[in-house]
């Protein structure tokens, strides 16, 4: 599955690079992620701030529909408001393939699948003035889900967008718990 999605993303970048109606860009911004799912109590965790940054390609962009694959480094996780301020810090490489629909002057709606590859996972907590951290292998190496949101094209090639990542693959290995990565992203981009 992950090889297939990676192949789709590489193919999309190749097609975009050879297309007469293609563009490339950079995008980054803030993440606000939490654990979600049936086995997560709303009182257990709070949103954890992180960031994302990466590149995207857009092709067939002159009409009302564009295809936009991307590759982004993204820090996700969650935070617990216990006495230790314990938190999960999950570093991923996100590979979305989005379909953008122009819906008005400068506005667009987008949605599509995303596969994420775990690069590092750790749990942290604060004890006094010190932070205790340990890496864990309890998190699955891939995460799949959906992305959807709203974007706006600014003058001079800049764009802003807000999106929601809806994780659909349980996070933890060897567990039947329905716990997923879920969160919002706010981004600023530039298309060359």
What does this structure look like?
The structure is a single chain. The chain has 192 residues and is mainly β. The chain has one domain: Porin. An eight-stranded antiparallel beta barrel has the order 1-2-3-4-5-7-8-9. The longest helix is centred in the N-terminal third of the chain and has 17 residues. This is PorT family protein. Keywords: Signal.
How is the topology of this model organized?
Layout (H helix, E strand, L loop, with lengths): L1 H17 L3 E15 L11 E12 L5 E15 L7 E16 L4 E21 L2 E6 L6 E12 L4 E10 L12 E12 L1
Antiparallel strand pairs: 1-2, 1-9, 2-3, 3-4, 4-5, 5-6, 5-7, 7-8, 8-9
Defining key terms:
eight-stranded antiparallel β-barrel, Porin, 1 helix, PorT family protein, elongated, signal, 9 strands, Beta-barrel_OMP_2
